[in-house]
């Protein structure tokens, strides 16, 4: 089974049942375009205040969908060699293509199995959000998941000091370890994005859905962090633990002066698989801070990095740090 659509259909059978999703939305009774009627703009979210005085639940879910497009494409290409089918790419705004991406030749069967599972989950997230949004769904924007020297992954790796300047590139599809580091770039950001968005969602039904998405992303992040930690302990010369610290530092350099990130290096005598604040809580990022990271820019902008033409939807401008 090599066709991408068939592979995605296979994934669909092992995750949320479509009939369950239909029941979910029938019980809610309205599409996101209606549910988004409650409008909010809070002081705690400067990006929202800057770009749209009235943000709806649909705007927030579309912001999440943009992120899920990116993750789904990365994991699908890594696991199967193909991306999302065309029927999961359409919507309002300019539909963009995916640059780069290819199948990883995994040597560790555990990592290969994890890649398949996470890819299936991310496809379901795209399906779920598109169903929730209905006619308000945004199209997939242009996405860069390639490994060219000037591409987003190489730019992120260069900012973290994992590769040198010039024509050097970082290839997240080269081996198991590079794939895990590529996944590490995304997963922690996804957790903080959903946590930061949760207070802004007015519909309890959508809030419950966002909590479910956050939980899955947290499982993914912990899995990736655990494997990187274990491989780093097993083979210290691979410098995997140090690489996570470097990526964490690079993310923190983009999203402002507050420390909202951690690698997997030990804290005292304990591992650091779960990044937490002083209260034992997961970190939160505003939409603007999330965009700083995925655009790979600490200034206010509406495009760059993994989204060369920017995200689709209302929430698309990064914070000015």
Automatic annotation (TrEMBL):
Q: Does the keyword Nucleus apply?
A: no
Record field: transmembrane: 24-41
Note the Pfam families from the entry: Ferritin_2
Q: What UniProt keywords apply to this chain's record, in alphabetical order?
A: Membrane, Transmembrane, Transmembrane helix
What the entry lists under InterPro entries is as follows: Ferritin-like_SF, Pigment-catalase-like, TAT_signal
Q: Isomerase among the record's keywords? A: no
**Can you say what this protein is called?**
Ferritin-like domain-containing protein
């Amino acid at each position: 089974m090599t066709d991408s659509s068939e592979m995605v259909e296979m994934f669909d059978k092992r995750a949320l049942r479509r009939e369950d999703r239909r029941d979910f939305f029938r019980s809610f009774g309205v599409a996101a375009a209606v549910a988004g009627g409650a409008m909010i703009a809070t002081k705690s979210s400067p990006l929202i205040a800057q770009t749209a005085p009235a943000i709806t639940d649909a705007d927030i879910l579309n912001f999440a969908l943009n992120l899920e497009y990116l993750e789904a494409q990365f994991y699908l290409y890594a696991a199967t060699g193909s991306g999302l089918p065309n029927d999961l790419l359409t919507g309002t705004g300019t539909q963009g293509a995916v640059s780069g991406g290819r199948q990883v030749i995994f040597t560790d069967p555990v990592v290969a199995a994890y890649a398949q599972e996470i890819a299936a989950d991310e496809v379901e997230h795209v399906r779920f959000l598109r169903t929730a949004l209905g006619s308000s769904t945004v199209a997939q924007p242009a996405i860069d998941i390639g490994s060219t020297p000037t591409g987003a992954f190489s730019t992120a790796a260069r900012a973290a000091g994992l590769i040198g300047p010039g024509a050097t590139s970082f290839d997240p599809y080269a081996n198991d370890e590079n794939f895990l580091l590529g996944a590490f770039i995304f997963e922690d950001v996804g957790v903080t994005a959903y946590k930061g968005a949760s207070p802004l969602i007015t519909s309890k039904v959508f809030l419950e859905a966002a909590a479910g998405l956050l939980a899955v992303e947290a499982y993914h992040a912990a899995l990736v962090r655990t494997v990187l930690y274990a491989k780093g302990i097993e083979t210290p010369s691979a410098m995997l633990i140090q690489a996570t610290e470097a990526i964490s530092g690079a993310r923190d350099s983009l999203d402002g002066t507050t420390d909202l990130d951690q690698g997997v290096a030990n804290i005292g005598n304990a591992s650091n698989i779960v990044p937490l604040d002083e209260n034992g809580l997961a970190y939160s990022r505003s939409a603007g801070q999330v965009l700083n990271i995925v655009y790979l820019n600490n200034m206010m902008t509406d495009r760059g990095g993994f989204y060369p033409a920017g995200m689709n939807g209302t929430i698309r401008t990064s914070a000015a740090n």
